[in-house]
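Consider the following input, taken from an annotated entry for Probable Fe(2+)-trafficking protein (Aliidiomarina shirensis).
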Amino acid sequence: MARVVYCEYLKKEAEGLDFQLYPGELGEKIFSSISKEAWAEWQKKQTMLINEKRLNMMDANARIFLEEQMEAFLFQGKDVDIEGFTPPEEK
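Applying the prediction step yields:
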């Protein structure tokens, strides 16, 4: 049976992650209160951010920046600002 969590991002109950995908306290918070759907949304944004800003994940500052963006996106309802990216208009 799927694990259900109250997703802080979607503001509703949804299928939770199968295991903790991020280390530490933040990882525990994500595991207990972020759904698979919200995590998948973040993964897309993260990929765009890494590509757009040409982040080197070996660089500690790049990892800190990404973590701040992830926390703001998942828990504070802030969208990721990706230069040159215009979301497709809804029809």
